[in-house]
Amino acid sequence: MKATDAEVDIVRLLKTGGGDHISGQMISLELGISRTAVWKHIGVLRKAGYSIEGSPKKGYRLLPFPVPFNGIEVRSGLKRGIIGRNLFFFPTLDSTNTKASRLAAGGADEGTVVIADGQSDGKGRLGRKWHSPPGVNLYTSIILKPDIPPQQAQTLTLMAAVAVAEAVEAYSPVRPTVKWPNDILIESKKAAGILTEMNSETDRVNFVVLGIGVNLNMNLPDELLHTATSIKEKTGREVSRAEFAQRLFSSIEKWYKVFLAEGFEPVSSVWRTYFDREGKHINVRGSREVEGICMGIDSQGSLLVRLGSGQVERVISGELA
Ligand code: BT5
Fold it and tell me: Most buried in the list 47, 52, 65, 236, measured by CB within 10 Å?
């Protein structure tokens, strides 16, 4: 379901009312729609979980609770920009990446966002699964259409990692770290993962789907107990998923603009501040196992490893132990 402009604008207006009533006439004037249309949109908002009081004399008033988690709520707190200008929210999907790829193939604009409350077939890399229970975490995919050759797509994963790390940092008691190429860790446990999927020709990218899963309020299942964490597990506090999503999208907007204007270099220098393996002995499993001293990343986001022989090997994709 797409969050429509009118409903997003009505929620914005009611929020600026700070709990006061706003007349139907005022809303209809501000939005340039009829009062009947306002009334219909209010009905949609109530169905979407908002508590809105209506009085024939005074107008409408938004109660502060409950704050629903849906596309309208997320968009109502976003500055107008590229990321999230079109936003689709679903109570459940197989995978937000699959949905976003289909939308992109059908011509969806750059910046289109898909969010699902829960996923029945959340995807990790290489056919792995992403644990995606409803009601607790953020599962989102963003369509980008950068004018870059396919060999540079990995740099977008690292750009997303910076944005996710920055958003997680705002909630986490300690600074998160990034684990090349696609994990965000809190105290060495995975709090978020990124799955970048690309549709390209030999020399140009048609679109990229950045899929991001962040563990916010999840109680960890047994199989992830020793390797994963959530923000709530670290802080004991519930995170507002809408607020987190807004922070994440603003951060992606910021870094994507830097990326388009100045390239990967400024992004990679911030990425390095979250990366704690440079200069250390590492082991990476890619097409083969590579062991040596980590020399950081290159301009395409590949990992550089100095082998015992002194030769520096470039690892394009793989798994850092
Ligand atoms: C990833 O893969 O880390 C990419 C995860 C991307 C998930 C998002 S959610 C929104 C969008 N839609 C999708 O369908 N996917 C994206 P990878 O590096 O392959 O890590 C997968 C491994 O992480 C699994 O094999 C598990 O060991 C572990 N894992 C699974 N679910 C997890 C979770 N919720 N939190 C932490 N670790 C998890």
Answer: 52
